[in-house]
Amino acid sequence: MKRLWLLFTQTTTLLLAAYFVVATLKPHWLGHNPTVARTGTVALVEAPPAQPGSAPAGSFRAAAQKASAAVVSINTSKAARKNPNANDPWFRFFYGDQGNEPQVGLGSGVIVSASGYILTNNHVVEGADEIEVVLNDSRSARAKVIGTDPDTDLAILKIELDKLPVITLGNSDGAQVGDQVLAIGNPFGVGQTVTSGIVSALGRNQLGINTFENFIQTDAAINPGNSGGALVDTNGNLLGINTAIYSRSGGSMGIGFAIPVSTAKLVLEGIVKDGQITRGWIGVEPNDLSPELAETFAVKTRQGVIITGVLQNGPAAQAGIRPGDVIVKIANVPVVDVTQLLSMVATLKPGTATRFSIERKSQPLELDVTPGVRPRPRTSGR
């Protein structure tokens, strides 16, 4: 019996010793995934090699790779304006020789068509003499401006290259606060950069940036050079065109704004098909209905937009709208403020009568207004 016990203990000891040696030197023989690398007296546990093409949990790799190929860098140059006094010796004495080097600018853009159409911001290319587009695959080409829409700060460019990557248009109307998004562009000219964040707010307006404002607000980092770049969802689909930031330092402070792709699509189709954007216009001077204006014009309602001026012989005047009238509804849709009024009128089809619900000195009226074509704004430096 003692002999059997001695044999058992010796066998067990040998097996444990063999297991320890194998577990230390050849752990994969035992099916262990992590490997142990010894550095001096410190044992480091290393993760197994990742499978080719696999992404870590929570990674936005697929969305970034899908969208990045269609986001381009835009380099612009503008001839320097010569000072009319540059040849005056006294002027040169006090101010020195004024350089005649061209002004250069940086921005981003998004390829939206295999035909070479690119969406970007109007302020990126405004006044430029030469526009160069650089793709993510390092190809470059001169771009031609097909059309611009200063009211929304959008511009359409076109390049002539083969096999262009094209971004997929998403549904900006379905975006909700809290949705994760990526901003892709060329900030400060350092090269294409992807940043992540969430949708912070929707329908931002009254910022004084554009005539028609309906911005998506995001905390994804947007910096100078990102203008015209892409705001995409986690599937890599385009949600908006990055346009502006709120900043006290010139850099990102977590408040960026993008033009919804629904707006950009209308501008793109209008410019490509018709060569221009046609918007409705009625020729009035609207104001938000404040208590002071309500008292001045003897208005009792507290809802709507008050008209303080009407263009003579304009569409509104011809329909019977007068100063002091309050526009309460358009096509049975309530009007809340001036920004909404402008946007609603802009979407009306010129030449087609639309029902306006008016309140004139506490008396409700229904008027049919036939919008005209909104005049193009004067181009101004930005």
Cα gyration radius (Å) = 32 Å
CATH topology of the domain at 172-274: Thrombin, subunit H
Strand fraction equals 25-35%
Number of helices: 8
CATH-derived architecture of the domain at 172-274? Beta Barrel
* Biggest sheet overview: 7 strands, antiparallel
Beta strand count: 23
Unreliable spans are none
What is the CATH superfamily label of the domain at 172-274?
Trypsin-like serine proteases
Question: Strand order within the widest sheet?
Answer: 7-6-3-4-5-9-8
Percent helix range: 10-25%
CATH class of the domain at 172-274: Mainly Beta
First-last Cα distance: 100 Å
SS class: alpha+beta
Overall, the morphology is elongated
Mean pLDDT: 83
What would your notes on this structure say?
The protein is of the alpha+beta class. The chain has helices spanning 2-25, 61-68, 89-95, 122-125, 261-274, 291-296, 315-319, 338-346, and strands spanning 35-39, 42-46, 71-78, 103-111, 117-121, 130-134, 140-142, 144-149, 154-158, 180-185, 193-204, 215-218, 230-232, 238-245, 256-260, 280-281, 284-288, 305-310, 326-330, 333-334, 354-360, 363-369, 372-373. The strands form five sheets. Strands 7-6-3-4-5-9-8 form a seven-stranded antiparallel β-sheet. The chain has a six-stranded antiparallel β-barrel with strand order 10-11-12-15-14-13. Strands 17, 18, 19, 20, 21 and 22 form a six-stranded antiparallel β-sheet that branches. β6 (130-134) and β7 form a beta hairpin.
